[in-house]
Amino acid sequence: VTSVDQHPPTSHAVFPATDYDLAATLTSGQAFRWRLQPGGWEGVIGNHWVRLTMQQNAIHATTARKVKSWDWLTRYLQLDVSLGAVLAEFPDDEPLRQAVKSCRGLRLLRQDPWECLASFILSSTKQIVQIQQIVDLLCQRFGQPVHIPTGHAPAFSFPTAQQLAQAEEAELRICKMGFRAPYLKAAATKVASGDLDLQQLSALPVDQARSPLLNCLGVGQKIADCVLLFAYGFQNAFPVDVWVAKALRQLYFPGQTVSHQQLREFSNSYFGPQAGYAQQYLFHFMRTRTLPRP
DNA sequence: AACCAGGACACAA
DNA sequence: TTGTGTCATGGT
Question: What Rg, from alpha-carbon coordinates, does chain A have?
């Protein structure tokens, strides 16, 4: 073929997706690299730049290059999960009914463990918009360029543990992560050296997978549970952050004084096998509900 | 302009 | 075991 194609060989695909609120899912504080552009939601998964749009019970995906398989995307979006089956296992109570009603279609993603661990190390006591900014800076500075559509702004992969382990703490601080810089570098070093094998954790029971994560500096119960839930798919992991704590106190213990530890004990026993999904609904419900009114 | 953010940690009592 | 100060940064 001698013709010159000015456009790179993009790929398109359409996936049936009922009960899927793409916007809520991509902005619900589990992943930090999605931006709403005029043409749809744009982000990077692994080394794929991708644009997603929702069209009548289907998700339309565009990549900048031909792809052999879409498994990386269907896995990331968890397109084979039946939301109805998940919601059916929620406790039948008023708070969850309200939360589900307010944002039915909210999903859990299945992210890369290293990106997830690193992102949530950077998340501590930061607003979601700031986490997005830090992660963006980190990718621009330490990530690899990925293929993008012609004329599009550059996009970068999430830096590997090896790439970040080589960075100086001062370089990391340029990305505005502050006191989290030594935590990130230590985790990167641990993963790069093989001391922490993230791949291996997926084969373990939840509680055995949690402890090596907790051994990372800057990783406590909350961040460990985020990684267990958002990267490994342990759907009974239940991260309790300030919003979820607020939701639990307000919706399940109104007028009472409940310690953080008591909240953890309650959530561990009450929400059942799909506790992680319930947690995400409560988080999103609380956050969208208390936004300033116009 | 204060208050707070998808926390963790060292240290106190 | 449970409670407080500290850390860095900037959005609301």
Answer: 20
Mean pLDDT (chain A) is 95
Question: What is the β-pairing status of strands A48-54 and A35-37?
Answer: unpaired
Give pLDDT tens digits for A48-69: 999 999 999 999 999 999 999 9
Q: Are strands A145-146 and A35-37 parallel, antiparallel or unpaired?
A: unpaired
Residue pair A250/A211 in contact by the 8 Å Cβ criterion: no
Separation between the CA of A258 and the C1’ of B10 (whole angstroms)? 24
Closest among A188, A192, A212, A190 to A200, alpha carbons compared: A212
List the structure tokens of A44: 């990077």
Q: Which nucleotides of B are covered by protein (CB under 7 A)?
A: 4-9
Distances from the Cα of A8 to the Cα of A42, A67, A151, angstroms: 17, 12, 11
d(CA A209, CA A226): 12
Shortest CA to C1' contact from A134: nucleotide: C9
**Residue A7 vs residue A122, higher pLDDT:** A122
- The residues of A annotated as belonging to the active site are 222
**Location of structure tokens 């703490």:** A169
Confidence of residue A2 (pLDDT cuts 50, 70, 90): very low
Q: Above 80 in pLDDT, residue A278?
A: yes
**Rounded to an integer, what distance in angstroms lies between the CA atom of residue A231 and that of residue A211?**
15
pTM of the model: 0.96
